[in-house]
Specification:
The chain has 191 residues and is mostly helical. Helix content is 76%, strand content 0%. It has helices spanning 2-6, 9-27, 43-72, 75-80, 86-114, 121-134, 136-148, 151-168, 177-183, 187-190.
């Protein structure tokens, strides 16, 4: 499952390369901003965490695309006649998504270090643990989307969902006013 995921160029582009490019484009030229929009956080740190959230969220939701593709060709039906337990199938999907999320996190952490992000070891570990726990609802959402949509419609649904969730999660800028109030009911805000 992991090898199949690594061979998917579109998946790698949107969950790994795109967040890195955005991070360097935004944070690279603003690496000296130490109080981003009055948040008390430097811009490189804010965008590193934002792009890590974006990339890992995309990774978790993209597991649904693989499920939809397998469902469309009858692979799920074929698996049901084997001794493979459904829980093992879903566990493999979720663990693969988590491993890809870990790769995305590591790449963004290295990018952050290259732009001067400096955190204590306990802060790096705490942030990583919180991101991994915060991905649980996105794993469930990815599986649900994979069972509800067709392979033809899942690409645009995932793209729109990830963009909306990123906006309401504060990935691009700190939220205030009505957006802040609304966002508190959405898992991407807590991620």
């Amino acid at each position: 499952e992991m090898l199949r995921t690594l061979r998917n160029r579109r998946f790698l582009l949107f969950s790994l390369i795109f967040p890195l490019i955005l991070y360097y484009a935004v944070a690279g030229s603003n690496r000296n901003v130490r109080n981003f929009e009055g948040s008390g956080i430097s811009l490189p740190v804010y965008y590193m965490v934002g792009m890590a959230s974006f990339g890992t969220m995309a990774t978790m939701l993209s597991s649904g695309a693989r499920i939809a593709a397998e469902r469309s060709v009858g692979w799920n039906r074929q698996l049901r006649i084997t001794p493979l337990a459904p829980s093992a199938y879903f566990r493999a999907k979720v663990l693969t998504a988590y491993m890809m999320a870990a790769i995305s996190l590591a790449a963004l952490y290295l990018a952050g270090l290259s732009l001067g992000v400096s955190l204590s070891a306990s802060q790096w570990l705490e942030m990583t643990g919180l991101v991994l726990v915060g991905l649980v609802p996105f794993a469930a959402l990815g599986i649900a989307i994979g069972h509800l949509l067709t392979p033809d419609s899942i690409g645009s649904a995932l793209g729109g969902s990830i963009s909306l969730l990123a906006l309401l999660g504060g990935v691009w800028f700190p939220l205030s006013g009505f957006l802040h109030e609304l966002a508190q009911y959405i898992p991407s805000y807590w991620l």
